[in-house]
Design brief:
Blueprint (H helix, E strand, L loop, with lengths): L4 E7 L3 H12 L4 E5 L5 H5 L15 E2 L2 E2 L11 H14 L4 E3 L3 E9 L2 E8 L2 E10 L6 E2 L13 E4 L13 E5 L3 H12 L4 E4 L9 E2 L2 E2 H7 L35 H6 L3 E3 L2 E5 L2 E4 L3 H26 L22 E3 L5 E6 L3 E2 L28 E3 L16 H14 L16 H8 L2
Parallel strand pairs: 1-2, 1-8, 2-5, 8-21, 10-19, 11-12, 11-19, 12-15
Antiparallel strand pairs: 3-4, 6-7, 7-8, 9-20, 13-14, 16-17, 17-18
GO molecular function: flavin adenine dinucleotide binding; monooxygenase activity
Keywords: Oxidoreductase
Pfam families: Pyr_redox_3 (PF13738)
Length: 437
Amino acid sequence: MTQTHYPVIVIGGGQAGLSISHQLTQRGIDHLVFEKHRIGHAWREYRWDSFCLVTPNWQCKLPDFPYTGKDPEGFMGKHAIVEYIEQFAASFGAPVREGVSVTRLRRVTSDAATMFELETSAGVFTADQVVVAVGGYHLPVVPRMAERLPKDLAQIHSREYKNPQSMPDGDVLVIGSGQSGCQIAEDLHIAGRKVHLCVGGAPRVARRYRGKDVVEWLDLMGFYDLPVHKHPLKEQVRGRANHYVTGRDGGRDIDLRLRASEGMNLYGRLLAIEDGVMHFGQDLKQNLDKADETSESIKTSIDKFIGERGISAPTEPRYTPLWHPPEPAVTTLDLKASNIRSVIWSIGYRADFSWIEIPVFDGRGYPGHQRGVTTCEGLYFLGLPWLYTWGSGRFSGVARDAAYVADRIELCRSEDADDEVAVPYDGAHMIEALIGS
């Protein structure tokens, strides 16, 4: 390849980068996509064997490439997800260069022209405009307290977990009860492994209610069209944990109380590690109660929506807890005495945009933007959680964001647009339920 300058260069070949590539291709705009690994790398390498989507397949709506399989109400596994992404890229001949990492991005001026310069593992490239589509989950978080664990104890991050058989013999401690932590703990538990789970403040949601998947109700209620600036938390929602639920076994709730009644050991937040002993907070009951309250509040909002719209829907009883934490709470765990031989850290990721040498970031390192358009003309971000709506970093909403950014690229100007998507239902009570107390 001899061409080193492009009108547009896209960094990242995941669903976001491919979506903007599709939109640019439709508009006849010459561009190139750099992908550090292979298309679908994160889905292929950073998900466990039994992983599947937590949203129904019908929500997979990449540009001009919606899910057309035989199970729209089902939940694709990781291999099907990779195939879906690869088929999407092939459908329009995405100009992707795989195996090329971008190590530096800056603005340069040469011969009175200002452009972007990208230092990559394949050489130096320049572009008039750049789209950063690498998401926001870059560096796995493992706290410094992990250094205090015994040296013979196996430690991995959740993205390294593959299956129960890959873990050492003995009990497993999972730290973190977000979507990944809860699903991994269940995967181990179902396989017959003894599991200990640190439960934090992540909310939960029911899989189905009153005849529909809750995702379908939320879709009808307009939640997935709600722009971030209309959310009660505004930009703060970008840092909130997602509600835990699963698409496994055809889709069902994740009920930690049920798992506890079956033998899974639950604890509150991890506070400290001293001499092989884990110390937990006394907040297990509070965390379980709040997660249940959020789930039930969402149901209340659905009830309200059904009543206001006069929708015919079956009724069903509300959730009844099957298990309650002991009192007083268990606040210590001796790793050796409990035969714990491995720890899985599942407390998330942090973003790393340190390779971008352009002053568009806030004090926390988050890029300042309006719907992906930054204050630096020609620089855009795509695929970030809640970039514009809940679906911005997902298969369900990235197409809308990509079309918007492509329009800005085509116009070659950064302007504030007022073409907000109308929300078909106010959903105020539902929103309050979703953010929890």
